[in-house]
Design goal:
The protein is an alpha/beta fold. The chain is built from twelve helices and twelve strands. It has a seven-stranded mixed beta sheet with strand order 2-8-7-6-5-3-4, sandwiched between helices. The longest helix is centred in the last third of the chain and has 24 residues. The chain binds pyridoxal-5'-phosphate (PLP). Pyridoxal-5'-phosphate binds next to helix 3.
């Protein structure tokens, strides 16, 4: 199987496998227990917390482990906003049209059941959310701004430092979903003026089912637990803490940047685009071409029947149509619609996302399939 879907989930790194194997065998104590095995588990959890805090310039006391970015995003909205006396009269939220589906789902819920008004900022034609566009929709009662760092369908990097500065000046909470940017783009929560940030392990070669949330000044904030429990994770998220997964997460944070460097050096994305150009095929690369990850590319082919390419390659090449979460539904991607792709361009879009072991031969196989499709027409 040729795997070109790392933005949906990155394959588990060898270092992570070693850590998981060891932890699952040896770290079976409950981290709240006072015996040696409990303390061992607790130590691993705390050192992983340090690793993640260090990576983003935060304090360890500001990092909470969750099941992944979806849960972190839920905490960012619901734990910070609901029942918070200081934000009681602030009923407006600003987000964007290109957020991950889970953020849009949370916003729908808050609008429907908690009386929030939501403004969805539109990206520019390059798929980037601009701070000056966002400034226009802020209101006196804006409680939270939530803008993703890197978009999962396009790979575009949003200027969250500019947006953070704007929010800081206005005293508005700023959250960013960093599931796609963590360990790929430098993050310093102070420099970027981010108050809350979401992370996921499986997007960087860690295990599925573990992630984290950064909350500035966590201990002084009024937070409603998403899961009420026995006080774990600052009382925000009850349940026995998943020490083996957390150990694997820390191993991925440590190892991933080296693999990502290798991926960047290979420059396969740019080679692929050059070959498409040489093939004399009509295509459009979606998204800004300067402020974008090297590991993701979204390409539309107005003259090709891309759904039939998927049928041709389903068993041999893993690629995404638009994005993973919408690929099994017939409705077009909300991200591609937001950048105003229409008709044939909208229908015939591929998202390729590479790993460090992607080789040119893999992409060449895909090019061959595209060539065959072109000649069939
Ligand atoms: C994958 C992804 C998520 C969901 O992360 P999970 O850890 O799978 O819950 C959220 N936001 C973005 C931008 C993502 O790419």
């Amino acid at each position: 199987m040729i795997y070109l879907d790392s933005a949906a989930s990155y394959p588990v790194l060898p270092e992570v496998q070693v850590a998981l194997d060891k932890s699952f065998r040896e770290l079976y104590g409950n981290s709240t227990a006072s015996h040696k095995l409990g303390l061992d588990a607790s130590e691993v959890i705390e050192s992983a917390r340090d690793v993640i805090a260090d990576k983003i310039g935060a304090l360890s006391s500001e990092v909470v482990f969750t099941s992944g970015a979806t849960e972190s995003n839920n905490i960012a909205f619901k734990s910070l906003l609901l029942d918070n006396p200081a934000l009681k009269h602030k009923k407006h939220i600003v987000t964007s049209q290109i957020e991950h589906k889970c953020v849009l789902a949370i916003c729908n819920y808050l609008a429907k059941f908690h009386g929030y008004r939501i403004s969805y900022v539109k990206p520019n034609a390059d798929g980037v959310i601009q701070a000056d566009e966002l400034a226009k929709v802020l209101q006196d009662d804006t409680a939270l701004v939530s803008i993703m760092h890197v978009n999962n369908e396009l790979g575009t990097i949003n200027p969250i430092g500019d947006i953070g500065e704007l929010c800081f000046k206005k005293g508005i909470l700023f959250h960013s979903d960093a599931a796609q940017s963590f360990c790929k783009v430098d993050i310093d929560v102070d420099e970027l003026n981010v108050d809350v940030m979401s992370f996921s392990a499986h997007k960087i070669g860690g295990p599925k089912g573990i992630g984290a949330i950064y909350i500035r000044d966590l201990r002084t904030r009024y937070l409603t637990p998403v899961v009420h429990g026995a006080g774990q994770e600052n009382g925000l998220r009850g349940g026995t803490v998943a020490s083996p997964l957390i150990d694997g997460f820390a191993a991925s944070v440590d190892a991933f940047p080296r693999y990502y460097e290798k991926l960047k050096e290979a420059k396969l994305k740019y080679q692929f685009i050059e070959h498409l150009t040489a093939m004399n095929i009509d295509f459009k690369v979606n998204g800004n071409n300067t402020n974008i990850l090297d590991s993701i590319v979204s390409i539309s082919f107005p003259e090709l029947d891309i759904p039939s390419l998927f049928r041709m390659t389903d068993d041999s090449i893993a690629i995404a149509q638009g994005s993973a979460c919408s690929s099994k539904q017939i409705e077009p991607s909300h991200v591609l619609s937001a950048i105003e792709l229409k008709g044939k361009l909208l229908e015939n879009t591929l998202r390729l996302s590479f790993t460090h072991f992607t080789i040119w031969e893999d992409l060449n196989k895909l090019l061959e399939s595209i060539r065959a499709l072109k000649n069939n027409d």
